[in-house]
Amino acid sequence: MTDGIELLRANRDRLVELIDRFAQATVLVVGDLTLDEFLNGEVERVSREAPVLILRHEETQQIPGGGANAVYNFAQLGAKVKAVGLLGKDIQGEALARLFSAAEIDTDGIFWDVDRPTVTKTRISGHSRQSVMQQIVRVDRKSNELPALELQQQLAAYIRDQIDQVDAVVCSDYGDGTLTQPVIEAALEHPRTIVDSQKQIPRYQDAMIFTPNLPEAELAVGYAIENAESLSRAGRDLLRLTHAQYILITRGEQGMALFDRLGNEQHVPAFNRTKVFDVTGAGDTVVAALTLGLIADATVWEAVVLGNLAASIVVRRFGTTTTTAAEMKAELEKMIERSELSAVPNR
Ligand SMILES: Nc1ncnc2c1ncn2[C@@H]1O[C@H](COP(=O)(O)OP(=O)(O)OP(=O)(O)O)[C@@H](O)[C@H]1O
Ligand SMILES: [Mg+2]
Question: Does the annotation count 284 as an active-site position?
Answer without folding.
Answer: yes
